[in-house]
Amino acid sequence: MNIKKFKSITILIFSFVFLLVACSDSDNADNSNEEKPYEGETLSLIMDKDDSTQDLQDNWIPQFEEETGIDVDVEILPESGYDTKLNLAISSGQEDYDVVRTGVKNWNQLVDSDWLEPLDEYLEESSEDYTDGFEDKLLDTLAVDGTNYSIPYSVGADLLFYNKEMFEEAGLDPEDPPNDMEELVEYAEKLHKPDNNQAGFVSRGTKEGNENSFSMIMMWLKNGGRWEDENGDEKYTDIINQPEAVETLEQYKKLMGDYGPKGASSVGFDEAQLAMQQEEAAMWLGAAQLGPALEDEEESNIAGDVGYKVLEGKENTGEDYVSGAVWGFSMVKSAENKDAAWELIKFLTSKEVVKEQTISGDLGSPGRSDIFDDEEVKEVLNEDFADALQEANEHTNPIYSPIISEGDEIRGAMSSAISEVLSGDEEPKEALDKANEEIKDILE
């Protein structure tokens, strides 16, 4: 073969190899783009602070960023400051966020303000593996006028947590906790030992973020209170000053004023949880998702010695006597890249994230139902807690808070009344009558 012909063949071979490499690189680039179609995008996420959201920020969002190439700016605030920040953002028309963690108590306000993006189309286009993890009944209950604006993350049915050792020391059977509100007050009196820095009961007492009204509503539902009239229609005036509410506030006053911790009017859920962990309170009525922290051996002195109970409602109260505080993730309507925002919401509410957070104890009351059939989840959940949670979920009432745009203001009027009673400035009936008039002014 002559040199000229050899050179020609060599050039052809190199040209062919170059084309193969180029095509291969092109394919790899296309695959990379398919894997990270939103790479370079930035999303802003705001959440209220608890163990689960802190874990999302520390461990899961970095994984999401790595997998998608999306940068996520995260802001976490205490619940009281969080509500204030959301209300300010709505009223001022700020468009600083793409995804927000929202609760039943403020969905209607956010929807009425045209601040949230409907999510039905996104749900319809998602895989069955993702959507089948949510009960249709739950999604239907959370819809506003038939439209979904939030994907459930946690369902905080209320439970009574109690210290078994303190029960025994007080001569009470830890396997026979109080059954209803009347017995709860009786047990709190027997368990209250202020000389030992031991409160008989603890719950939310601060009016910041309307937290104390949440505790009262938990109790009120069990006494027959509802945001409706005798026909089952929504009603918000001449409700909180009725006998059920007056009785409940009288019980609340005894529980927190007489048998609660010092400085009860400044207690939020963080302080209540800490009081139980540090053996400074014998019983705590709180949202289920906060309970697993009591079993954390590194954080809690009572791990392995916690009892769980679903307080029952009075006769003729109905079956929905447990507050169902649902929290989820929503998309802000002004989000510049809504598809990227939806990817973040899907990730935060995915089976992988929810399952692992449930196993770790960071998420105590998951919104996905499919994780309870998982063998790994069954192995780590406290059996008594799991049984109580299942019972509570069967009696949840998601309309524990007024689901109207003025709902936060109505809860604010309640919180002020509770605070006045707890401080001793007013009696329950007087304070609730005053709050009822304030609610009328709000609605007019």
Overall outline: globular
Order of helices and strands: HEHEHEHHHHEHHHHHEEEHHHHEHH
Distance between the termini: 101 Å
- Assign the CATH class of the largest domain: Alpha Beta
Secondary structure tally: strands: 8
**Biggest sheet, in brief?**
8 strands, mixed
Total number of domains? 2
The CATH superfamily title of the largest domain: Periplasmic binding protein-like II
Strand fraction: 5-15%
**What value does the average pLDDT take?**
87
* Number of helical segments with 4 or more residues: 18
Q: Report the radius of gyration as a whole number of Å.
A: 26 Å
* Low-pLDDT ranges: 1-33
What is the CATH architecture assignment of the largest domain?
A: 3-Layer(aba) Sandwich
The portion of residues assigned to helices is 40-55%
Q: Enter the CATH topology name of the largest domain.
A: D-Maltodextrin-Binding Protein, domain 2
Helix and strand composition category: alpha/beta
Name some characteristics of this structure.
D-Maltodextrin-Binding Protein, domain 2, 444 residues, eight-stranded mixed beta sheet, alpha/beta, 2 domains, 48% helix
